[in-house]
């Protein structure tokens, strides 16, 4: 299957700064890929390269079977939806007028406007001026705009900023629906816990470099982070620091009603056997490393010499 | 073409919505009627004097106002959308940067055109109805030429405004540059030419041609050409009395003054990074 997005050794400089350094990336149709990284890690630059807003200094970018700038751009852009970071609209127009304007530019049937306003929950505010919208409402209008014309590729830059938890869940549900229809989604996010169940793969960027890429399972295997085991029960008096066969098993916290252990992946079963054999243990909770842990792990590898973190 | 019309339509609707069209038309109409009525005030009279005097005064007014209005209307066409963040989104839509700028031009051009026709048209009707002893045909042709050339002059400065707008990255800077452009073309050029005229004693045949380097002078020449006999010509334009400076030649020159900056703006916009 031909990839929807194909980066080959793509490099992009901005003045003295290297925004993207020799990045290889291949995204298959119907995949949801998360772009993770610090500010200035290259997430937005990657999106701008895919959109053809900027051209790579070195390397080759191909999107939906062609270079994103040049003659292919016109057809490509009708099949693509983009939600920029900090999206903003014409303040003096109403939500419906804004969306109608963008629909006309994208040559999409007018009927879709009301359909999308309904879908993002803006029907009741459709005739109000954008000036009066809250941050979350603007974000939802931005999403509606990106969904115009049933795109095959969606680029969402920080899509959940300003959304409340319920709206965030709705949003990710929409992403899942789109993916089920075969739409490829690229999203960047700072809010890691919410995004985890909805993505196929994550690309962790740092200073324009690829730090890691893969599914959650692949990233866990690569990082070899210890998992967390939480044991509950009347365990206060027991000296849990001792008596383990494996010295890597450590107590990371000691609460009133339980103990939390940090356990390497290959020692998981040994630790569980030990705990289940103890009659004082009432309950055991097993927590694999989350995306947040993985992200911290991979980005920590580079952070000491992180250039331009705030640029 | 579709995208061009969409952009133009939105721009024109914005012009109606934020009362630009109404404001420009009212200002032009009020000033024009005032000039027609108090044109003789300097000589102690009141009421309509002559068509030549009125049209000369009106064109002097237009030379100052129209470029200023056009620059104010259009200086933020690109840089304004860039600062608002909407440009980034628009550039990911299936429309070329050329269509974007052409759409803007069509919209802004229409705003200025409609407002000028309304403003000066109202003044023309008022004069036709209220003044005695005016040759209606002469009035119609004089006002027609004034309106046509005013609209063209406005479009020239809209094109200048776009050139500024694609060149800078801050709205405030664009506004400042727009004022500088207005100042140079409307005021400084005239003074410079006057100084040159005074200092050149002999062989100044080439001097009139310098007038073509400034669209506002072309505009003046178009409107004053008909009134050489009336002796009401004032200022540096009087050096250009002669056959070459007829509206039939000057109007294409004004058109060139629209196309060149607009073309440069499009070129610059196409080749700059987003």
Automatic annotation (TrEMBL), chain A:
SMART domains, sorted: AAA
Claim: ATP-binding is one of the keywords in the record: yes
InterPro entries, per the entry: AAA+_ATPase (IPR003593), ABC_transporter-like_ATP-bd (IPR003439), ABC_transporter-like_CS (IPR017871), ABC_Transporter_VariousFunc (IPR051782), P-loop_NTPase (IPR027417)
Coiled-coil zones: none
This protein's UniProt keywords: ATP-binding, Nucleotide-binding, Transport
Keyword Transport: yes
Domain of life: Bacteria
Residue ranges of domain ABC transporter in the record: 5-232
Molecular function via GO: ATP binding; ATP hydrolysis activity
Name of this protein: ABC transporter ATP-binding protein
Species in which this protein is naturally found: Vreelandella salicampi
From TrEMBL, chain B:
GO molecular function: ABC-type transporter activity
Lineage summary: Bacteria, Pseudomonadati, Pseudomonadota, Gammaproteobacteria, Oceanospirillales
Keyword Transmembrane: yes
Provenance organism: Vreelandella salicampi
Keywords: Membrane, Transmembrane, Transmembrane helix
GO CC list: plasma membrane
Entry keyword annotation includes Iron-sulfur: no
Name by which UniProt lists this protein: ABC transporter permease
TM stretches of this protein: 20-40, 52-75, 109-131, 143-168, 174-200, 249-269
